[in-house]
Amino acid sequence: YDLHQRTTYIAETKQALGEIKAYYSGDDVKRKLADDMRKDIMKQPTSNLGATSSDAMENTHFIQGQQAQQRMIMEQQDEDLEELGYAVDRVNDMAVGINTELKTQNRMLKDLESDLDEATEKMNFVMGKLAKLLKTKDTCQIWTVIILFFIVLLLIFLLIYT
Fold first, then answer.
1. Is residue 67 part of a domain?
2. I need a surface site. Which of 31, 61, 120, 135 has the fewest CB within 10 A?
3. Does residue 61 belong to any structural domain of this protein?
4. In degrees, to the nearest 5, what angle opens at C-alpha 35 toward C-alphas 30 and 39?
5. Structural domain total, the chain
6. Integer Cα distance of 122 and 50 in angstroms
7. Is residue 3, in this structure, part of any structural domain at all?
8. Which residues form the T-SNARE coiled-coil homology domain (predicted)?
9. Rounded to an integer, what distance in angstroms lies between the CA atom of residue 75 and that of residue 68?
10. pLDDT at position 48, please?
């Protein structure tokens, strides 16, 4: 019972964390952050930038806005590249797993092939001996084979139904 409560709590916590992460990585939050950054840059005093006229101040504000926008674009690109890197790592892990599995299956196929070759050789040997036996005119040998065949069938029948 205690273990069930803990696993339920962990599952609920993971779900809540996922929802929070999805919210904070959403477009609304990113837009809000970008707007706040733009407002902060616009609030910076322009007197230290050397602008003396209103046109120069307007140009300075425009340049600052463009710089802020470029920084945001670069941050977004960094985030996208980081996600792409994680995706590439996952694909690499899957490729390594597939490669390992293929090597294992290839080894198993080679083992199966050698086992089949060995069984084929034994079967050819038995078939040769059987052909030699059936070519004989000795009825005693033929009756011995027939009786042994029926004994094997009887043993198999008893083995299955007991």
1. no
2. 135
3. no
4. 150
5. 1
6. 98
7. yes
8. 71-133
9. 11
10. 46
